[in-house]
Design brief:
Keywords: DNA-binding. The chain is mostly helical. The chain has 11 helices and no strands. The chain has a domain of 149 residues: Tetracycline Repressor, domain 2. The two termini are 14 Å apart.
Length: 218
């Protein structure tokens, strides 16, 4: 465990103090039509990740999309609506990743697969993930409630695997909700500090999978 902790600390120190470039792959939003709406979403992700939601203006977003501020309202009624669309997409994408990764003959195998995939997703899509995970308070109550439903499904995916491991004796977990939160937090926090210049998402996923398994093994 100490060896893993040292590796994690070393990896984290590599990226501390590095300015993360908020570059968004337009292909992520290829389902959004028309193209102008897609450019606005891309610009919003970029701006929110770099400046934060509160410090970002509609002019900032429109400028990144190569459009006038007034053009934004043709496609989205507000800045908050853009944040909601980003949050909805990001949470659904993360949930899909977990559901696809829930494979393996034992709870330990499933947990490792889940954590590795969830961590790698937060690294590979760190710009979107940073907005999705750290701007929730800026959503309207109605939109937050919709996103919260997806977040509960994400938590349930991990909690069920932990419960299965407790049942078969492979995991020693006395607080399922608390441990679920701890496991998820490992992966989610990657979006806060990750930069593509440091480390490989798959390798980071494996490291975090090792940590998660050691946290709960009996």
């Amino acid at each position: 465990m100490r060896s893993l902790a040292k590796r994690l600390l070393s990896f984290t120190r590599l990226v501390q103090g590095v300015n993360v470039s908020a570059v968004t792959d337009p292909l992520v939003w290829e389902h959004v039509q028309p193209a102008a709406a897609r450019r606005l979403l891309t610009g919003a992700v970029d701006a929110f990740a770099e400046r934060g939601y509160q410090a970002t203006t509609t002019r900032d977003i429109a400028s990144r999309a190569g459009m006038s501020p007034a053009a934004l309202y043709v496609h989205y009624p507000s800045k908050e609506r853009l944040l909601f669309e980003i949050s909805l997409y990001g949470h659904n994408a993360a949930l899909d990743v977990l559901r696809s990764a829930d494979t393996g003959p034992t709870p330990a195998d499933r947990l490792r697969s889940l954590v590795a995939a969830f961590t790698a997703w937060h690294a590979q899509h760190h710009t979107i993930a940073r907005v999705v995970q750290y701007e929730l308070a800026s959503l309207s109550p109605e939109h937050l409630a919709e996103v919260a439903t997806i977040r509960r499904a994400i938590s349930a995916q991990i909690e069920q695997v932990l419960a299965d491991g407790v049942q078969d004796g492979s995991f020693d977990v006395t607080d399922l909700p608390g441990t679920t939160l701890a496991v998820l937090s490992l992966s989610i926090d990657v979006a806060r500090w990750y930069t593509p210049h440091r480390g490989d998402p798959a390798a980071l996923g494996k490291l975090y999978a090792d940590l998660a398994e050691r946290m709960v093994q009996a």
